UniProtKB/TrEMBL annotation:
This is Alpha/beta hydrolase. GO terms for molecular function: carboxylic ester hydrolase activity. InterPro entries: AB_hydrolase_fold, Esterase_lipase, Hydrolase_4, MAG_DAG_Lipase. SUPFAM superfamilies: alpha/beta-Hydrolases. Keywords: Hydrolase. Residues 19-243 form the Serine aminopeptidase S33 domain. The lineage of its organism: Bacteria, Bacillati, Cyanobacteriota, Cyanophyceae, Acaryochloridales. Pfam families: Hydrolase_4. The active site is at S98 (nucleophile), D208 (charge relay system), H238 (charge relay system).
Length: 258
């Protein structure tokens, strides 16, 4: 496994590459940040790709409690970043991780994208074995009078990278206004998926403890794309870009984009 020697950071980045015509917009997950994408971005940059990543509104303030924010605010920031790239580069690829996937899918339904990568797409949450009530309904009801819940342990198998993420992540809580808004985004995007024809690569952790892996299968089957691929990671939890399968993810994404 390629050793990652740098330090993870949680800030927007722009890495100019060799191709004057093509750039890639990278979209992070809910309540997280650009550190989720950093190792993959460095690998793709070494291959000559141009990469841009932003922090969404409500994800860009270093503080203990995650602020309120909505999917419309995140999408507006994503679309602005896309249009900034499009002003210089004729073709834009999009890589979304977790909640970055429905954002990327929504962008693909509104604007021309060359290729789309969805990593552990958040389309439904993994139902915990101990809860008789569906997690989504629980969040919708509890979230109305409980704005924050403590953030549980990170979904990670690799202890080294997990320790790094714990140092750079901003929030110790999950904001339920934001979580409910992400669910609204998913409901908005689902009917659009059959109309999306962008070549798409989906990579899913088989043992994901955060999102339901069936969401990746659903996305693969529902997409209107003529070119689509679903690949599985066997050794990681949700954050496949940083966990034990990060080299496999980097190789798959590189091969697909190039």
């Amino acid at each position: 496994m390629g050793m990652f020697t740098g330090q993870l950071r949680n800030e927007p980045f722009f890495l100019p590459g060799r191709d004057p015509n093509r750039a890639c917009l990278m979209l992070h997950g809910l309540g997280a940040g650009t550190y989720e994408l950093q190792i993959l971005a460095e690998h793709l940059h070494q291959q000559g790709n141009t990469l841009k990543a932003i922090l969404y509104p409500g994800h860009d303030q270093p503080q203990a409690n995650m602020p309120n924010s909505t999917w419309q605010q995140w999408y507006k920031a994503v679309e602005r970043a896309y249009l900034e790239l499009k002003a210089t580069y004729s073709e834009v690829d999009v890589i979304g991780f977790s909640t970055g996937c429905p954002l990327g899918l929504y962008l693909a339904s509104q604007h021309p994208i060359r290729k789309l990568v969805c990593l552990c797409p958040y389309l439904s949450l993994k139902q915990p074995w101990y809860s008789p009530v569906p997690l989504e309904s629980l969040i919708k009801s509890v979230g109305l009078f409980l704005p924050q819940v403590p953030r549980l342990d990170l979904p990670f198998r690799d202890p080294t990278l997990k320790a790094q993420v714990n140092r750079v992540k901003f929030y110790r809580t999950f904001n339920l206004v934001a979580v409910r808004s992400a669910m609204e985004l998913i409901e908005t995007v689902k009917p659009l998926i059959p109309e999306i024809t962008v070549p798409t690569l989906i990579i899913q952790a088989r043992h994901d403890t955060i999102v339901n892996p069936e969401g990746a299968v659903y996305l693969y089957e529902a997409l209107g794309s003529g070119i689509k691929k679903l690949a599985w990671c066997e050794n990681s939890d949700h954050i496949i870009t940083l966990d034990y399968d990060r080299d496999q993810v980097a190789a798959e994404v590189t091969a697909f984009l190039n």
